[in-house]
Amino acid sequence: MKVFILAAGRGRRLNPLTSSAPKCLTQLSGISLLYMQITALRASGLNDITVITGYKSEQIDIPGIDIRLNKRWAETNMVESLFLVANEFGNDFIVSYSDIVYEPSVVQSLLRHKNDISVVIDKNWRQLWDARFEEPIKDAETLKLDGQGHIKEIGRKPANLNEIEGQYIGLMRFRGNGIDALSSARKTERQVANSLAAADNLYMTEILMRIILNDTPVTAVPIHGGWLEIDTFGDYQLYKDMIKSQTLSAFINLNSITSRARG
Known about the structure:
33% of the residues lie in helices and 22% in strands. By secondary structure, it is of the alpha/beta class. The chain has a seven-stranded mixed beta sheet with strand order 5-4-1-6-11-8-12, sandwiched between helices. Strands 2-3 form a two-stranded antiparallel sheet. Helix 1 crosses helix 9 and helix 5 (177-192) crosses helix 7. The longest helix is centred in the last third of the chain and has 16 residues, at 177-192. The two termini are 25 Å apart.
């Protein structure tokens, strides 16, 4: 099974950390986000890993990891980065954002799901969002489930907390017919975009929502914490302070990753 890590973007909201290095090389406890991801993936038996890079790509060099360069990283978004490697999809692959960290147990939860499309969601999202934001709802997105564990809405602006049954973390799996559904959804979204620039800057949640509208089931993989998103410099400062005060375990067992990474 292939794993594709989307790491082309600059991550301006993490300035000044990203003024001289890619977002994925931001460090917690002395280890980069990217290497912590790779460690969690390898601990789950996943070794065929490709990182799609862009901004300051030359700084990313990890033994045993394939690198693919999105030369148009400044004009495109993560969907286009992913489809640069469409000929490498095979019949089963995982996609991961590069500004997240997750325990091996999160990866293992995803691997247990054998559906065509499986998307990890955090049911305990509110605890993490309350720590990160003064008004959590402003930085959250809708995620609604049906009675069968499928996502029926994702990625929109919520009117109230009832429209948020979890938060998408940026980790998902596509198999078999799900890969065809992914390609078809991208094609449709590019066709309906109002400009070439908009077509080149689609978000994964837009693609997932199109898949749902096309009546293809998107299965939720529920977790209850065990991950972090590092999107802003405020996130970085928060987690750094929590590591120092030994309170980060409220959200993630970082040692389950860092001990392996250092070993």
